[in-house]
Amino acid sequence: MDLSHYLRIQAHANHLMNQRLARAMQGLAQAEFQAPRVGFFPSLAATLGHILEVDLFYVAVLEGEANARQVFETFRNPETLVDWDAAQRAVDQRLIAFCAGLDAAGCDAAVRIPRADHVQVDRVAHLLAHLFMHQTHHRGQVHAMLSSTAVAPPQLDEFMMPSEAHLREPDMAALGWREAQVYGQA
User: Fold this and answer.
1) C-alpha 79 chain-centroid distance
2) Annotated binding site for a divalent metal cation
3) At 55, which CATH number?
4) What range defines the domain where residue 66 resides?
5) Quick one: which residues bind a divalent metal cation (predicted)?
6) Binding-site positions
7) Which of 23, 60, 91, 172 has a beta carbon 3.0–4.6 Å from 177's, enabling a disulfide?
């Protein structure tokens, strides 16, 4: 498997896991969504908002938006789970589309990341690896926070293995995806 194919799978996995979280939390009361919890970002709303904000920034960087840094100046945490889900779906789709267009040269291309005090230059594949790690890290925190609610934390870690298709087929079908489309298998 080449790196661009792997990153396309990662982008799909990212979206599916965000959707599993959104679906699991549908019955969560607004007060529970906003309630203080143990975590680096001390609520479900704040943690999911952080994931969304960082996704918006890095996807804007990957898409070459000149004003990507403004994400941090204009971002407001979504008030409700429905608002978060809509915004997260939209940025996830942008990330999937970006990764769908990647090839080896695209993975190796330099990308300029505007930081507060400098412009960092890295390769696209490194930025994506960092982004997927970041998302996984904070979704794990959301998963742990859900343990203190009536919501059962959903399974978030069986997307990457082609042999585990039976564990994701209903979720993929709901998103209109096919195994061959995502994994490149006949």
Assistant:
1) 19
2) 50, 134, 138
3) 1.20.120.450
4) 3-183
5) 50, 134, 138
6) 50, 134, 138
7) 172
